[in-house]
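Incident log, structure service

09:12 report received: a user says their structure output differs between two submissions of the same chain.
09:20 pulled the input from the user's history:
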Amino acid sequence: MGISQTFNSSAKLVRLATLCIGLVVIIWNATSMQSTQNVYSRLTKPYAASNPADDLHNEFYGTVGSSSDLTGPVQAGRHNHAHHAPPNPSSKAESASLGLNGRPRLPPVEFIAQHVPQPKEDGSHLEKQQLNGYIDAIFNLDNSIFWRLECPEQHNQGPRYQVLRELSKQDPGIKYFFALDLYNIIDILPRLLGSIIQVIKFLGAENCALSIIEGRSHDGTYSVLYGIQEELSKHGVQYWLDQSDINPHADGVDRIEELSKLRNMALEPLTNPKTRPMFSDKPVIMFVNDVAICPDDLLEMTYQHLLQNATQTCAMDWVDGGDLFYDAWVSRSMSGNTFFEIPQDMSWAFSRNMFWDEPDAYTLYREKKPFQVFSCWGGMVVLDSAPFIDGQISFRRNVEGECYGGEPQTLASDLVKIGMSRVQTLPYVHVAYSNHEAERVKKIREYVHDVVNVTVPVNKFEDDKETQRVKWKQAPPRYRCMPGFNQQWWVDTVYVPGDEHLQ
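09:34 re-ran on a clean worker, output below:
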């Protein structure tokens, strides 16, 4: 073979190799672009509502606890969280510094840098552009990249809630403690955290703290939660963030026990003696699920909680376009029964007939006024922190001989035992587990400002002459135990001396 032939053959091989490389690059770029477009499209467009029937099946049915032969609901509310060990309490104390009124205060950024794991290189965290977009959307309500539930701004922080600011002046330190357990909810973060941030700004950053436990997310949830720390620090917000690998759905574990651990972890900054001095004498807990909320939902909950001198105040969560009350498994009225009748064939035939066996509650429900219940959660609660701080109660599963139910139900039983069973539901604070669902719920069941006049100034609760006060009663003598929807019976309520004052 001549030199020219050899050269021509080599040139052909080079051109062929170049062509192959070019094709590979084109295919790789197209694939990457499509992947990026798919991800960003999902992040920036309203997503279709999931099938409510599928949601109900996945959340309500399946194995209860570790007994495979019990078919029934799981704790209503989408708590698929997983986390690992809580921060080391002694390390928190070492990093403490003096803050408001000489109380120990932990610098948020320094604390997180020392005690919160960095995002792992596992492909779950977002690209920088997407991450920054989420962070901006949380702190900037004008950010329209991410579609979310619309919350009319002019109604969110009305003069009605000025009294909540005034109370902070009388009780220095962190007065309002926001606690969340979150897992794979990136689509709802701009609305959920955006509303919480707006409430914090209104109440005063120095009066608020935010505690979040996250785990097992693979959609970028943790990256966003980690990424907001700098902006929170700029606003002066005390922020705790931790991860855990607890999986309530893992084989061989009791789901309620694992969920209780996660809830207690979120409360740890408040209940730990090392960090307790940072808080006011009477802080309020705002425990929020992965729900789409407006700022006035949180403010009204807190307002009514303090006005009514309640121990626990609940919202109402909805699915199926606002047609079906979601937390049916753990909620009991003052008749001791479920909020609506659930026959043992496990149908929802009577789901619209709320409070059918308690006329007083039914009337107040229809009039959209607060009323007492035995147990509830409803996607979001405000809690009296005193019994948690004092160690009288914590979230837990049932013990032997006790009715098996969700942790809100055991909480209700424990509140009765310590004479603090002042639990109420607000039938005009409505939440849902997606922006799309929440939009439909608010449209059907109204916003808070459609029900109460938020424009009337209230500087002290005595100024509120319109709100009907709850007439607290002793807890019902018995309540319906329901390990599964097809397993129902009545059990006696356990009282202790001292609860008679509620009569």
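09:41 both user submissions now match this output. Likely a transient worker issue. Closing.
09:42 reviewer note: Confidence is low (pLDDT under 50) at residues 2-8, 24-115, 499-503. The first helix runs from residue 3 to 44.
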